[in-house]
Design a protein that fits this description.
Blueprint (H helix, E strand, L loop, with lengths): L4 H8 L11 E8 L6 E6 L14 E6 L15 E4 L4 E4 L10 H7 L15 H6 L3 E5 L5 E6 H5 L1 H4 L5 E9 L5 E6 L10 E2 L2 E3 L12 H20 L12 E11 L5 E12 L11 E7 L1 H8 L8 H16 L14 E4 L1
Parallel strand pairs: 8-13, 12-15
Antiparallel strand pairs: 1-2, 1-3, 4-5, 6-7, 8-11, 9-10, 9-14, 12-13
Organism: Purpureocillium takamizusanense
Family: Belongs to the IPP isomerase type 1 family.
EC number: 5.3.3.2
Length: about 350
């Protein structure tokens, strides 16, 4: 069963008793409530400070076999200093282990980390594969981080590894959509046409988030960063407040036999006239298209498009596009994740 942080939160509150999701046993300390409780339960990942529910501020966990005494039964009850804005927990329990790629490897000894998969690829693209993506559960709650390489190997995707992403759709003042053709150097989906910019919020300050508003803000900051990196669009031309969040899609798609995607993808619209300074290591071509022109391009058998772009186009893109200047609000800030698996 996939890890569900909300279910874990309910169990930690004592509403359902100790949880058992399979995997390594953890000792966890509940924070953010009127009293402290400790449970022995199992998770497939080792979360620390997980935004779990409206009622719980944090859950600190460590691997049972590496926690220091006292044992579970003797855990002290923490004291809480509460206010309307912050919750501070003081406890003598052992500090939780941080969630890192190394922790994932320890808990999942069969996860694929083979560097041979990168052999023969572009040096700069190999370097970028070391960036740390946000690993999430099926409900888009962060449970840790792992490198882009680990997140995009199909051997790991087939084990359920899921990460957060974003897709930007940038329109000019003629309501034409800016497309890019991915560079041949790209390790995943090279040479394919796609939306303006698609990449990942990273596990860095300002781009993470456990609540939807915080996660949307993180995706927007990541979008600014990558629009500059790939297309040379400066953040002053694409202010955070001008991005409009529509929805999230959960999809899975192979690139070839080795690489693929398994993402919760944040869909962001923005209307702006921008200056381009293309990074040839990322993008080999661009073009602005009308809705009718894009439909014609899809009919051209010589052109290839990324799977997430096709999914979005075949579902809601053209309807959203029609309402770009009037009525888009009714499509914005969708709370539920669209499952496209």
């Amino acid at each position: 069963m996939p890890f569900d942080a909300r279910a874990a939160a309910r169990d930690l509150k004592g509403l359902g008793g100790p949880a058992d999701f399979g995997g390594a046993p953890l000792r966890c300390q509940l924070g953010g409530g009127p009293r402290g409780e400790s449970w022995l339960f199992k998770l497939p990942l080792d979360p620390i400070v997980v935004g779990t529910s409206h009622h719980i501020a944090q859950v600190d966990c460590c691997l049972l076999d590496s926690c220091n005494p006292p044992p579970i039964a003797a855990l002290p009850t923490p004291s809480f200093a509460m206010s309307t804005t912050t919750t501070t927990t003081t406890t003598a329990a052992a500090p939780a282990q941080p969630m890192t790629a190394e922790t994932i490897l320890r808990l999942f000894p069969d996860i694929d980390t083979n560097d041979d998969a990168l052999s023969g690829h572009d040096e700069e693209q190999i370097r970028l594969m070391d960036e740390m993506c946000i690993v999430t559960d099926d409900n888009d709650l962060p449970v840790g981080k792992a490198s882009k390489k680990i997140c995009h190997l199909m051997t790991n995707i087939d084990k359920g590894l899921l990460h957060r992403a974003f897709s930007v759709f940038l329109f000019n003042d003629k309501n034409e959509l800016l497309l890019q053709q991915r560079a041949s150097e790209k390790i995943t989906f090279p040479d394919m046409w796609t939306n303006t910019c698609c990449s990942h919020p990273l596990s860095v300050s300002g781009e993470t988030g456990s609540t939807l508003p915080d996660a949307v803000e993180g995706a927007k900051r990541a979008a600014q960063r990558k629009l500059d990196h790939e297309l040379g669009i400066k953040k002053e031309q694409v202010p955070l407040d001008d991005f409009r969040f529509l929805t999230r899609i959960h999809y899975k798609a192979p690139s070839d036999g080795k690489w693929g995607e398994h993402e919760v993808d944040y869909i962001l619209f923005i209307k702006a006239n921008v200056d381009l300074n293309i990074n040839p290591n990322e993008v080999q071509a661009t073009q602005y298209v009308s809705a009718d022109k894009l439909k014609q391009l899809f009919d051209d058998p010589s052109l290839k498009f990324t799977p997430w772009f096709k999914l979005i186009c075949n579902s809601m893109l053209f309807e959203w596009w029609e309402h770009l200047d009037s009525g888009l609000d009714k499509y914005m800030n969708e709370q539920e994740i669209r499952r496209m698996l």
